[in-house]
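Troubleshooting entry. The earlier prediction with fe (ii) ion gave an output that would not parse, so I re-checked the input for stray whitespace and re-submitted. Clean input:
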Amino acid sequence: MSATHSQREKMYRAYCEYFDTAEKKRRWNPFNDVAWEKMNTALNTEEDAVCLETFCGVELYVPDYTSNAFKMTRDLFGAAWFEASWGYEESKHALVYREYLIRSGLRTEEQYNAFEDHIFGKIWQLPFKTRRQMNCYGALQESATYLIYATQRDKAKENGNELLQQIYFLVSRDEAAHRGFYQKILQFELHEDPEGAMEDLAHVVFNFYMPGIGLIPEYDERLKISGVGVTPQYFLQHGVFPLLKALGTSRAELIKAYRRKQNREAAKPTEELPAAKPSLEAAQLAA
Ligand SMILES: [Fe+2]
Ligand SMILES: [Fe+2]
């Protein structure tokens, strides 16, 4: 379904605002704006390496993320141009993590290349089918990513690792901006079609999983390392509930929308199930 004139206009303005702020306040160069001279290899641990390598792996799927996003948004200027800016910013995240892994000696070039081969040997697939659902997914996924990196930033500060703290600060600030953009678009969608957008949000919340699942080697094992992920409870408290509040809605409304959609679809053939077990269960959200 093509976008209305008012949707186009709102998306365009939202993108211009996003781009302008990014240009003025948030641009950074992984080579020149990062204090590499502060590298202190004595502070690095294998736990840091697993975290960085896993995050780098998720960020490395930029070609799959952007090619899918462009196919979905190419007829809507604000949305497509956002995906271009977004892809550029995400590409720097993989770059800075890669540089840290190699410069620190936490991984050799050979080890990194073998890891990258694993990553590019798999293809990321769109977890949801429509642009609106992918907006919901974007708001949640960026929020989870922000929380993970912000936790790492604070941990690096505690450990006195100024370089890593700076890197996680720069990357998490980008993720917060991404979350903000998707949240704003979701607000437009809720205004245009309150019931339909709420059902999509509920569908995505209850079927949400992080992009690394099924793609990053030994992802489940990696999740046992402190800081690689956040628990579902932490994500609900610090990601999902604040998003609902910012959108002016509630858990009760979300569950109502979820049940309404389920009831309506009960008679229809079952929808395709997500590729992995969702991170969130209805019971957790209702708790
Ligand atoms: Fe990122
Ligand atoms: Fe992001």
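This one parsed fine. Residues 90, 142, 145, 175, 178 surround fe (ii) ion (ligand 2) (CB under 6 Å).
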